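Hi F.,

I've been meaning to write this up properly since the lab meeting, where we talked about keeping a consistent format for the predictions we share between groups. The idea is simple: the sequence comes first, exactly as it goes in, then the structure tokens exactly as they come out, then a line or two of notes. No screenshots and no reformatting. I'm using this chain as the first example so we have something concrete to point to.
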Amino acid sequence: MSNVARACCAALALAMVVSSPVEAKPLKHAKMPRVPASAARATPLPPELARALAASKVPAAHVSVIVAKVDNPLQTRGRIGPPLLAVNANVPRNPASTMKLVTTIAALDTLGPDYRWRTQAFTDGTSDGRTLNGNLYFKGSGDPKLVPEEMEKFVAELHHAGVTNINGDIVLDRSAYSADIGDTGAIDGGDDRPYNVAPDPLLYSFKAVSFSFTGNPNGTVEVGVLPPLANLQVANNLSSTGSGHCGDWLARIHPTLNAMADGSYVAHFSGTYPASCEDKGWNVAAPDRDQFFLGGFRALWQASGGQFNGNVRTGVVPPGAHLLVTHRGQTLAEVVHDMNKFSNNVMARQLFLTLGLAADNNRTPASLTRSRDVLNRWLDKNDLAMPGLVVENGSGLSRIERISATELASLLQHGINSPTAQVLIESMPTVGVDGTMRNRLMNRDVAGNAHIKTGTLDDVGAVAGYVGSRSGNIYVVVSLVNDPRASQARGFNDALISWVYENAP
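Output, unedited:
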């Protein structure tokens, strides 16, 4: 067990002791005055980190850093103590995907790690125990991980409810979200990029298709597809070549995915695929969310022996329709694990909307405004002063989101001293081991001893999380770089993580 994991378990045990012996609850303390952001006093970088920053060519004025020891919550009221390092720590900056930590910690506190999303099936028709004569309505609540494995369970539940043949249409009820959700468009104009997929109450398999390629000795290329889609045709005109480097392989296979007038998809590939390319894949956001949901459902429905030849449309569950199935998705703990390990933006956006939707018991459509209100009330309740916080969608895929290093460090201090600390830490990439940190610091002693969420946008490079030092103590570490050369500061951020492990007392 790493030092960070040991500290997490200790914090969790402490919370259990001072709260209910039956159900762990957040520690309760008397109200304290809000601590201003200026509480983080500036300290200089040690020479080796100053050299690493200088090598990146990023001016120190464009970097915010804070390193602070994780303290006993009974002594600090959940706030960070005097920092070991603090550089521009109170300046609000774009955090990129480290903003997911704000959404994660608030969701774990307010919803609980066992929270599950519900996706329901209704009908306005009748069934003879085998054939449903009427429409099948799907009503979603924004499950971030309604993936094929979950849809297979949903299909089995429908069969168990006595439905094998559907003599009607599929109607998709998305009324759980306000109609303007997703109207802001892609952050970079790349509507076909999976990270730009808009939130959807019936988000199936992230509304993205993953194509994989395998060259054969006979010169042909096999194309694999996930998820299976009944309405997808693959036009494979690829040939495999045994010579040449992998290089820009994607440009050489000319990939396209188009939606046709009849509702089908056609994926087309042509050119040569080098046999030297291994484990390569093309991920693309699918056009037309209705047809994507239908194609995924129909593929699994037919594979299970079911029959359905109807159409799909958007609508609402009509009055008088009766409930057939309520599918309960994966737990929040499982969702944040995948969301943070692999920095999944659409999952984070769905989770952020859930803050507002769940607070109202799903009675009114989710909106960004309501989720921001819920987040602000949660911050107030926990005396987490964040005057620099600006939240757009809770994922970090934003040009306007802001938080200071001090504020993010305070949130991490709160998170590690909460009853859900274990879930939080296990959701974060482990340095040199997995997630977005799997290829960083692999050969350094800090590998396996730090749990760090990364954040990357054009002009933004960030890390935030926990480092277990060689001395056995745990430190909160945050670095936010906002500069056109932010990508060059990756070495500085890695050096910072390693320095804390090696040198923090």
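Notes:
The chain has 13 helices and 20 strands.
Residues 212 and 279 are 8 Å apart (CA to CA).

If this format works for you, I'll send the rest the same way.

G.
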